[in-house]
Structure formats: C-alpha cells, structure tokens
UniProtKB/TrEMBL annotation:
Pathway this chain belongs to: Carbohydrate degradation; pentose phosphate pathway; D-ribulose 5-phosphate from D-glucose 6-phosphate (oxidative stage): step 2/3
Top EC class of this enzyme: hydrolase
Protein name, as recorded: 6-phosphogluconolactonase
Alphabetized SUPFAM superfamilies for the sequence: NagB/RpiA/CoA transferase-like
Domain Glucosamine/galactosamine-6-phosphate isomerase per the UniProt entry, residue ranges: 7-227
Keyword hit for Nucleotidyltransferase: no
Organism: Flavobacterium ginsengisoli
Length: 238
C-alpha cells in the first residue's frame, strides 16, 4: 500500500504516529514492543519527533526493545554508524533501558560471528516465531533496502535471520536482517522521498519482478502489512 504526502514533515508525523500506535497496541496485548530502526538520513526527522515532548510520553519505553535492520561494520562512535544516529536523535532522549537496545556491532568479533550472535538475541526476545511488531525501512536510489543490495548473494538467503558480508563496491562489511525475517513482521513501514527515489519506487511497485536488480521487491509480508510512505516528488505526482 502506498500513501502519498505533500512533504517530509507529513511523512515524519505519520511514521511517528504509526510507531506510537504499534507500541501501545503491542504493549497492551503482550507486555512488550519490538521494533526495528532504519539508518541513513531519512528517518532522523521521525526519531526527533518521537523524542519530543509531544510523543515520548505516549510510550512505556521500559517495555520497548530496539533492533536495527542493518548496519555498516564500524564502531558505534563512527559517524557512519546507524546506531550513533539513532542514539543522537532518539534513544538518548527517552527512558529506554540499555539492555533493551541491541546494536548491530560488537568489538572483538567478526561480522559473521556477530550476525549469528545477533540472531540469537532476536530469538531470545521474539521467540522462534521471529515476528517483529514494527520494522522501519528506507529505500536506496538503487532499490536496495537494509543491506540487501542489488546482485549480492544475501538476496538468496532463506534460512539465516541475520547475515553479514563484504560489500565490495563500498569496501566495507555490512550486517543485515534478511528478507525472510523482515517478511515475518506485523507491520513494515518504508519511507522514501525526493527526486532520487522516483525511478526505484516506480520499478519496485509497478515494474517487472526482478529482486536481483531491485531488492526491495523481496519485501512481501507473510501475514503483516507493508506500507510505503512517500512524498509527491518520489511518487512522480508533483
């Protein structure tokens, strides 16, 4: 489902409202809320809104569990770290227990070793069903999401929930949730805006099915909801 908005402010407000709604619903039903954050610059406005006085008191943060969709294999204090951005805009401003936050990086282990460890953490919190309440995703100009990049072997992964690999074009390791795990979620919200997203959004949503070229097409929830929040420019209706 695609929802088109006038600007990024409307997208941010809608995404923040969905986050709060999902959190309240999950906590009321089962006593905890499991969410996956996305990186890059796109979600910063959403996170700042959630950290604002108007939003943060609507959620019992002691019952929130935070994971990430993907991460560059860099220390948590590196400017390239998705976790660093999430802390600076949201997590350092809300009363969430540190033990409820699962960063996608750890010193002293290989990316592959930590991918297996991260999967164990997910199973511990979510159980064997592996169903997140809410996953926030972005979409690259090339149609990638999380660290599911065009042409990479990770696109074929069917058994692992978390994988790590060396992304040669970027000359760095990436760690990512895999499509099968993402697709288990109750709600998946994709945020995309701006002129650079026009081509990818069109191909992903209305083009021929070719996930090797446009990995976002792999995101097809098993029983949950997939929602694209886009602006008029990205939708090509501006």
């Amino acid at each position: 489902m695609i929802q088109i908005y006038n600007n990024t402010e409307e997208i941010n407000t809608t995404a923040a409202d969905l986050f709060v709604e999902s959190a309240q619903k999950a906590i009321a039903a089962k006593g905890k809320f499991t969410a996956v954050l996305t990186g890059g610059s796109s979600p910063a406005g959403i996170y700042k809104l959630l950290a604002s006085d108007a939003y943060k008191n609507k959620i019992d943060w002691s019952k929130v569990y935070i994971f990430w969709g993907d991460e560059r294999w860099v220390p948590l204090n590196d400017d390239l770290s998705n976790a660093k951005m999430s802390y600076s805009t949201l997590l350092s401003h809300v009363p969430i227990p540190q033990e409820n936050i699962f960063e996608m990086y750890k010193d002293g282990v290989t990316p592959e070793e930590y991918a297996a460890e991260y999967e164990k953490s997910i199973r511990t919190v979510l159980g064997e069903e592996g169903k997140f309440d809410l996953i926030l995703l972005g979409m690259g100009d090339d149609g990638h999401t999380a660290s599911l990049f065009p042409g990479e072997a990770v696109l074929e992964e069917q058994t692992k929930w978390v994988d790590a690999y060396y992304l040669a074009p970027q000359k760095m390791y990436r760690i990512t949730l895999t499509a099968p795990l993402i697709n288990k979620a109750e709600k998946i919200v994709v945020v995309a805006f701006g002129e650079k997203k026009v081509h990818a959004l069109k191909e992903v949503t209305t083009g021929e099915y070719n996930p090797t070229l446009y990995p976002m097409q792999l995101i097809k929830p098993v029983s949950g909801e997939l929602l694209f929040l886009v602006d008029k420019v990205a939708a090509g209706t501006n």
